[in-house]
Amino acid sequence: MAITSSAVHCLVCGVFFLSIHLAEGDLRYSFPEEMRRGSVVGNIAKDLSLEVSKLSARKARIDTEGSDKHYFDIDIRNGDLVISDRLDREGLCGDKASCVLKQEIMLENPLELHRVNLHVQDINDNSPLFNKELIQIDISESAAKGARFPIEDAHDADVGQNSVQTYNLQKNEHFILGVGTNSVELVLSKELDREKLKEISLLLTALDGGSPQRTGTVTIHINVLDANDNVPVFQQPIYKTSMPENTPIGTVVLTVGATDADEGINGEVTYDFGHISDEVKAIFDIDNKAGEIKLMRAVDFETVSLFELRVTAKDGLGLTSYSKVIIDITDVNDNAPVIYTKSLSSPIPENVSSGTEVAIINVQDRDSENNGQVRCSIQENVPFKLEPSIKNYYSLVTTGHLDRELVSGYNVTIFATDEGSPPLSSSKTIQLSVADINDNPPVFEEQSYSAYVSENNKPGSTLCTVSARDPDWRQNGTVIYSLLPGEVNGASVSSYLSVNGDTGVIHAVRSFDYEQFRSFKVQVMARDNGSPPLSSNVTVSVFISDMNDNSPQILYPAPEGSSFMTELVPKAAHGGSLVSKVIAVDADSGQNAWLSYHIVKATDPGLFSIDLHSGEIRTQRDISASDSMKQNLIVAVKDNGQPSLSATFEPWEKIW
Fold it and tell me: Which of 196, 267, 286, 375 is deepest in the core (most CB within 10 A)?
């Protein structure tokens, strides 16, 4: 679609807006300068066919190319592109006929970039200005009718139709105005006579073509002299030169020259600048006598790439001519690339798939051509890579599996190098942390645990401690212990043991009896606090050791309703004869159940003996007639525990 110049002016005058779709998603908007903050330029959602409801989630925003100044915002509520700061076309683009701001609309998830060309249209907000309030001209009375005397033209910061279009000269009988393409001249229409008229004052008015129209005036004071017939003539109407932006201060950039055919003071030429801004006057200086234009302050190609200077040549009596000097600034590689992080997702879940985008990087170099071409890379040995995206954008994506338990964060350094000679480079480090997910179950420090406890223990006594480790972070790595449901001798395992959920310490709930059971097994679960939780189990074997808590029990001889036990022994029993045997048992085990037999008391201590281990009672000698017919024995049975427990059977009567 094409727009004619007349159409553009019409749009500006009526304060209309125009949006044009360019190739590959580009947009172009035209709007007048000096609009109020909050004014709507266009609707990007509509023009790019974007869903307004997704603008916020996709972090829609404006990115400015090569400038930190922020003139526009996106209203994510409705997709409007609105003005956020004052736009002065003259401050932004100077005398350029076209003033275009290049912006980029960025959206994420997925990354989407749209270039926007914003054409700032001129409004008539500047009046024509002459360089001086008073122009002094000395003209000889001998000047011939038709002689022309150049006048420095007026300058208007506006462009196009809003710039200077016409001039009006105050009506008089001696001069008319001659206006050319690049010149304004007084034309002598009637000869002068110094004896009649020594001075003439005329008002010159410059008018622009804006609506409403603006004007500027200057007073021309003419002194009528006797004889200065020739105006200085420049060697060239336009001087052109170029210099690199790193030209040393004090360098003579160009020398202008003009000649005057007159002699003496009438032929002495001095040089000066015409209408230029104070900023440019601070950069360049001109030698009044030699015409040398010297650099006084460093220039920057990235700020201003071209200077146009008006130069005057004036003879001794005030006749002046004008020339133009064009100085082209050439680029040198004096700007290193600048790396911007446009989007950063951190922390990154450790279970992200390979190829996940974690950051958007933008690289800019203010230099031009090869000096502004940039190559990017990142350090090796990190699970990330840079993928070129749109224009000078890159996506930082994962290349492999992340494991927070091995590496919890990365410092990724991005390197950018331009193709200048010599090349310039820069780097930027971004920090990426890895977020934990619950991908590790608790692991017990041992494959199984054994606990040893003596019977008759106190309820609440500590049996052992189980311990599990979980390398995950925070709640994902917080371990809680519990007993798995089960039974011991038909009763719930929780009636025998308990486990501290925080410490893993296992306690006895009751007192154990070795004579009831000697060991049992339980399952302990370690569970983390993740979502969903992960767990593992371990077997704990509890072994109960015997205590000497049971006295020997005498099974034989057993009293039967009487406190006496009577054994009959033959009268003729010989020494060593087996007369009886004591049988006893002990419910304990081991040495606690090892029994020994002892005769505690006897009527005749030398008549009977008892085997220490078997309990057999034998005569120690032959029984004689003189021995008492009744022999009483008291027998004790002892175990081998510490302390020893015993049982005694008494009295025991032997009769023969």
Answer: 286
159-195 burial by CB neighbour count: b if 16+ within 10 A, else e?
bbbbbbeebebeeeebbebbeeeeebbbbbeeebeee
DSSP state of 641: S
CA distances from 481 to 404, 523, 595 (A): 24, 11, 45
Burial of 199 (0-12, 13-18, 19+ CB in 10 A): exposed
For residue 404, what are the CA distances in angstroms to 180, 347, 439, 472, 507? 77, 11, 10, 8, 36
Residue 298 to residues 292, 301, 304, 506, Cα–Cα distance (Å)? 17, 10, 11, 81
Q: What is the pLDDT of residues 407-424, one digit of tens each?
A: 999 999 999 999 999 999
Q: How confident is the model at residue 517 (pLDDT cuts 50, 70, 90)?
A: confident
Look-up: residue for tokens 């087996």? 578
The CA distance from 478 to 480, in Å, is 7
**What gap in Å lies between CA 72 and CA 61, rounded to an integer?**
9
Best-predicted range by mean pLDDT (2-6, 436-440, 569-573): 436-440
Instruction: Determine the pLDDT at residue 190.
Output: 92
Q: What is the dihedral of CA 624, 630, 631, 634, to 10 degrees?
A: 170
Most confident of 4-8, 92-96, 296-300, 514-518: 296-300
Listed residue (83, 81, 59) closest to 70, CA to CA = 83
pLDDT of 499 higher than 60: yes
CB atoms within 10 A of CB 334: 16
CA contacts within 13 A on the Cβ side of 604: 17
Query: Which two tokens mark 527?
Result: 């569970």
**Do residues 266 and 315 make contact, with C-beta atoms less than 8 angstroms apart?**
yes
Q: Which of 231-245, 552-566, 616-630 has the highest mean pLDDT?
A: 231-245
Q: How far apart are CA 20 and CA 1, in angstroms?
A: 8
Average pLDDT over residues 467-480: 94
The dihedral formed by the CA atoms of 310, 269, 134 and 202, expressed in degrees to the nearest 10? -100
Structure tokens at 491: 């009763």
Q: How far apart are CA 116 and CA 641, in angstroms?
A: 99
pTM to 2 decimals? Answer: 0.58
- 481-489: long-range contacts (C-beta < 8 A, 24 or more apart)? 481/524, 481/525, 481/526, 481/527, 482/524, 482/525, 482/527, 483/522, 483/523, 483/524, 483/525, 484/522, 484/523, 484/524, 484/525, 484/537, 486/522, 486/523, 488/517, 488/520, 488/522, 489/516, 489/517, 489/520
CA distance 394 to 517: 72
What helix, strand, coil percent values describe the chain, rounded to 5? Answer: 10, 45, 45
Output the average pLDDT for the chain: 87
pLDDT digits (tens, 9 = 90+) for 230-242: 789 999 999 999 9
pLDDT of residue 1: 27
Number of helical H runs and strand E runs in the chain? 4, 52
Amino acid sitting at position 26:
D
Task: Give the position of tokens 């020259």.
Answer: 257
Give the separation between CA 110 and CA 118, rounded to whole angstroms: 25
Comparison of pLDDT for 110 and 116, the residue scoring more: 116
The closest alpha carbon to 232, from 140, 143, 150, 131, belongs to 150
The order of strands in the sheet holding 565-568 is: 565-568, 646-655, 630-639, 595-602
Cis peptide before 643 (omega within 30 of 0): yes
Q: Parallel, antiparallel, or unpaired for β 565-568 and 608-610?
A: unpaired
- Cβ-contact 453, 542 below 8 angstroms: yes
What is the maximal distance between C-alpha atoms in the chain? 199
